[in-house]
Design brief:
alpha+beta, 3 domains, 5-stranded mixed sheet, flat, transmembrane, membrane, Methylamine_util_MauE, transmembrane helix, DoxX family protein
Length: 368
C-alpha cells in the first residue's frame, strides 16, 4: 500500500504541476476558456465572466501549489482533501461538457495538448482514482524535508508561481504553443496540403418506403431509393486534416485582403481584439509604433473586432495614421495575448510578436 501511495503521489503531484504551469504560462488563454464555461450556453454563471482572469490565476496557482505540496509533504490533510475536492469538481464539469457537448476543449493543458471532452473526462477519472488511493493512505504522506525547509519550499512555490503569472501578464507567454508563434508562416498554416487526410463522413438518409421509415448510409451520394425523402444526418467517422489556422481573415469594407497582406514583404500588425477594453497606454504605444514603422517603410495594419464607431473615435483621439481591418474576435485573442499587441511579418512569417509593454524591443529597421 505504501508503495502504491508513493507512486500515486508522484504521478498526481507532477501532473498537477505540469498542467498548472502550462496554464500559468497563458492565464489569459485559460480565462477565455473559463468565460466559455461561465457563459449562458454552458453553466449560466455569467456574473463570473468579468472575474474570469482573476479566477484563472487563482485556480492555476493553487493547482501548481497543490502539486508541490503533495510532493514535499506539506500539510498532507489540507493538500489531499483539496486535491480530492478539486478533482471531483472538474470530473463533474468535464463529464457535463462531454455528455452535452458544450465545450470541445477543456483547456486543461492550454494550447500545448488538445484533448477531446471524453479524453479529458477519462483523464480526470484516472486522477480521481489516484487521489482516492492517496486519501486511503494519507498516513504514509510524510514531509520530505524538515518542517522549516518544507515551509520555505512551499512559500517559494507560492511566490514563484505568482511572479511567473505576473510576468506573462505584463509581457507574453514564455512558450507560445499557438500557430501564430514567432517563426510560423501564417499563410502556410491557413492552407491544407494536397496530400492531407480527407474527412470521412457518413450520410444517413431517411426515406418513407411503403409507409415505413428506413435508413440508408452513403458517403455523400444520393441513394437510389424508391420512396419519399424525409431527412438526412451526418456522422463524422474521421475528421481528417484541419489547418492550424482556420478562422483568420483581414477584411475591410467587405473585401478580403488576407492573401495580399500575408504576401507583403514588410508588415506590422497592430492587434486589438476589443478597442473599448484596450488600455490607453497600450493605444498610445501602438500609435508610436505605427509612426516609426511607417517612417521606416512598413505597411501598417490595424486588426480589431470592434465596430467602425469606436475605430473612428480612437483614430481621432490618438491620431492613428493607419486603417483598421476587421477580423474575428476569437482569432485575434488567439494571435496575441495582449490587447493591444504587435506583430512584425515578412511574407506572412512572424518575425517578432510583443505585448504593448515591450514595443521598444521591436526591431523596426528601415526597409525602403
Amino acid at each position: 500500500m505504501k508503495q502504491l501511495v508513493s507512486i500515486s503521489r508522484i504521478l498526481v503531484g507532477v501532473l498537477f504541476i505540469i498542467s498548472g504551469l502550462i496554464k500559468l504560462n497563458d492565464p489569459i488563454g485559460f480565462s477565455f476558456k473559463l468565460e466559455e464555461y461561465f457563459s449562458a450556453a454552458v453553466l449560466n454563471l455569467t456574473f463570473l465572466e468579468p472575474y474570469a482572469l482573476v479566477i484563472s490565476i487563482l485556480v492555476v496557482v493553487f493547482e501548481v501549489l497543490l502539486g508541490i505540496f503533495l510532493l514535499i509533504g506539506y500539510k498532507p490533510k489540507f493538500t489531499v482533501w483539496s486535491l480530492l475536492l478539486m478533482i471531483i469538481f472538474f470530473t463533474f464539469l468535464t463529464f457535463y461538457s462531454a455528455y452535452f457537448n458544450k465545450v470541445t476543449d477543456c483547456g486543461c493543458f492550454g494550447d500545448a495538448i488538445k484533448l477531446t471532452p471524453w479524453q479529458t473526462f477519462s483523464k480526470d477519472i484516472v486522477l480521481l482514482i489516484l487521489i482516492l488511493i492517496i486519501c486511503a493512505g494519507l498516513r504514509f504522506i510524510k514531509p520530505v524535508f524538515s518542517t522549516f525547509q518544507t515551509t520555505v519550499f512551499a512559500l517559494l512555490g507560492f511566490i514563484g508561481s505568482l511572479a511567473f503569472g505576473y510576468h506573462v501578464l505584463m509581457h507574453l507567454p514564455v512558450i507560445d504553443f499557438r500557430p501564430y508563434n514567432v517563426g510560423a508562416n501564417l499563410w502556410d498554416n491557413m492552407n491544407i496540403p494536397e496530400d492531407a487526410p480527407k474527412a470521412d463522413i457518413d450520410y444517413i438518409w431517411t426515406f418513407n418506403v411503403n409507409g415505413q421509415e428506413q435508413e440508408y448510409t452513403t458517403k455523400g451520394s444520393y441513394p437510389n431509393v424508391e420512396g419519399d425523402f424525409i431527412s438526412v444526418d451526418t456522422e463524422v467517422i474521421s475528421p481528417g486534416y484541419e489547418a492550424p489556422i482556420h478562422d483568420f481573415s483581414m477584411e475591410r469594407e467587405g473585401e478580403n485582403f488576407t492573401e495580399e497582406i500575408l504576401h507583403d514583404d514588410h508588415v506590422v500588425l497592430l492587434v486589438a481584439y476589443n478597442l473599448e477594453k484596450s488600455e490607453s497606454l497600450g493605444l498610445q504605444a501602438i500609435k508610436n509604433t505605427a509612426d516609426k514603422a511607417i517612417a521606416n517603410g512598413y505597411r501598417v495594419i490595424g486588426l480589431t473586432a470592434s465596430g467602425q464607431d469606436i475605430q473612428n473615435q480612437l483614430k481621432e483621439k490618438y491620431h492613428f495614421n493607419f486603417d483598421f481591418y476587421f477580423s474575428d474576435e476569437t482569432a485575434l485573442k488567439t494571435i496575441v495575448r495582449s490587447n493591444p499587441g504587435v506583430l512584425i511579418l515578412e511574407k506572412g512569417t512572424v518575425l517578432q510578436k510583443v505585448h504593448w509593454n515591450d514595443v521598444d524591443d521591436l526591431n523596426l529597421i528601415k526597409v525602403n
